[in-house]
Design a protein that fits this description.
Catalyzes the cleavage of L-kynurenine (L-Kyn) and L-3-hydroxykynurenine (L-3OHKyn) into anthranilic acid (AA) and 3-hydroxyanthranilic acid (3-OHAA), respectively. Its EC number is 3.7.1.3. The protein has helices spanning about 1-10, 40-60, 60-65, 70-85, 95-110, 125-140, 155, 180-190, 280-290, 300-320, 345-355, 380-395; strands spanning about 20-25, 30, 40, 90, 115-120, 145-150, 160-165, 190-195, 215-220, 235, 325, 340-345, 360, 360-365, 370. It is of the alpha/beta class. It has 2 domains: about 5-30 and about 295-405, Aspartate Aminotransferase, domain 1, CATH 3.90.1150.10; about 45-295, Type I PLP-dependent aspartate aminotransferase-like (Major domain) (Aspartate Aminotransferase, domain 2, 3-Layer(aba) Sandwich), CATH 3.40.640.10. A hairpin with a 3-residue loop joins strand 14 and strand 15. The longest helix is centred in the last third of the chain and has 21 residues, at about 300-320. The structure holds pyridoxal-5'-phosphate.
Length: about 400
């Protein structure tokens, strides 16, 4: 019964063929695309070209000949089309952490009379750490991190709030924050909004311009499949380009870097977010990975994502597993991103036991197991197989074996 219904879901899946553009290791069901997306074949091919032909043969001429120098901007524009942003507002560079430093400083420079950065206790730690670093650098009279619960952001904004730093999709629970509604409240108080799109970009329709978001950051190695450590992106609304200051004055952000002037003068456009020499190889990987989105609609992607998490939940409910795993994600698909997370006392060991049978999920401290689904390459039948394996491990308590108890450095 279940087998036939997942088969028909796969047959009717408008994105079914997209999976063939990715390398899937034999015998693996990959439910961790929200940590590191699968490798697209076109990325491997592009890296081959960039290294052998561009770097190998054309060497330094490639900065002009192959437009390496414009990659951050051009790739940024490609990302912009996934974010509901007009061209010229997104740059692909650095990591989320570094980009957060820049936009936090930019927000504090625009709202220089205010010091509070409001965020949530369960935001991704690096987001909170970057604010704490700024506090240490500037002093508490210039920057103060205030943390509240996710549902309390809107009511906590006040006239001393410089910016609200919010992650749209909670990395642990998958809960979606209503960015549009929150931004209206934040702007009423004269504060700015910085949105982290780490778990949104590529799986959720996003409308940064329409909702008047001030700044946004995100990465490309999760749902955008650009590979480990590929550069992130930063969005700064055009409204702010003239008056913002981001203090990482690097030559790539200079109005005319190749004049080699001893004095810094920032570019007046999104280029002012750039700092140093771009990582051309991984930036080219982002460029190639984004081509997979050509002709695909984010609404279709989002619909499949909701269907995938719904089916996964239903299958778990129909098995014994739901008695042991407590779902911490919203039960309404509209309110969650492309993942399901569960609390389970032996979450780490369960995760390890699943890896042994070819199901890759991930563990998040202290005792959560997180299953990410990627509408671009997850098939419905894979979910049915994964649930069977999860159920077996729970029934036979395989996770209690000692080999599943030792923790690796990266969990
Ligand atoms: C993955 C993730 C990060 C990672 O930041 P990096 O600087 O790219 O390592 C940051 N924030 C959120 C919400 C994330 O999910």
């Amino acid at each position: 019964m279940i087998k036939t219904s997942v088969a028909s879901l796969d047959n009717n899946d408008p994105l079914r063929e997209v999976a063939s553009q990715f390398h899937k290791p034999e015998g693996v069901i990959y439910l961790d695309g929200n940590s590191l997306g699968l490798m697209p074949h076109c990325v491997a091919k592009r890296i081959e070209t960039v290294t052998r032909e561009q770097w190998g043969n054309d060497l330094i001429a490639s900065w002009n000949k192959h437009h390496w120098i414009d990659l951050s901007r051009n790739v940024g524009d490609k990302i912009a089309s996934l974010l509901g942003a007009d061209y010229g507002q997104v740059a692909c560079c650095d990591s989320i952490s570094i980009n957060l430093f820049k936009v936090l400083c930019a927000a504090l420079s625009i709202n220089s009379e205010r010091k509070k950065i409001l965020s949530t206790e369960d935001n991704f730690p690096t987001d909170l750490y970057m604010v704490q670093g700024l506090e240490a650098l500037l002093g508490h009279h210039r920057c103060e991190l205030v943390m509240v619960e996710e549902g309390q952001l809107a009511e906590a904004v006040d006239e001393d709030t410089a910016a609200v730093l919010v992650t749209e999709v909670n990395f642990r629970t998958g809960n979606i924050v209503d960015i549009a509604g929150l931004t209206q409240v934040v702007h009423k108080h004269g504060a700015l909004v910085i949105v982290d799109l780490a778990h949104s970009a590529g799986v959720l329709p996003i409308a940064l311009d329409k909702h008047q978001i001030d700044f946004a950051v995100g990465c490309t190695y999760k749902y955008l499949n650009a590979g480990p450590g590929a550069p992130g992106f930063v969005y700064a609304s055009k409204r702010h380009h003239e008056k913002l200051v981001q203090p990482l004055f690097g030559w790539m952000g200079h109005a005319n870097g190749f004049a080699f002037s001893p004095l810094y003068s920032p570019a007046q456009d999104i280029n002012q977010m750039l700092v140093g020499t771009p990582p051309v190889i991984s930036l080219s990987a982002v460029d190639a990975a984004l081509d997979i989105y050509d002709g695909l609609s984010l609404d279709t992607i989002r619909n499949k994502s909701k269907q995938l998490t719904n089916v996964f939940l239903e299958l778990l409910k129909a098995s014994n597993a739901s008695k042991e795993l407590t779902c911490i994600s919203p039960l309404d698909a509209e309110r969650r991103g492309s993942q399901l997370s569960f609390e389970f006392e032996h979450a780490y060991a369960l995760c390890q036991a699943l890896i042994e049978v070819g199901v890759i999920a991930d563990f998040r401290a202290p005792n959560f197991i997180r299953f990410g689904v990627s509408p671009l390459y997850t098939h419905f039948h894979e979910l049915a197989e994964a649930v069977e394996k999860i159920n077996d491990i729970l029934v036979y308590k395989t996770y209690l074996a000692s080999r599943f108890q030792t923790r690796n450095k990266v969990t």
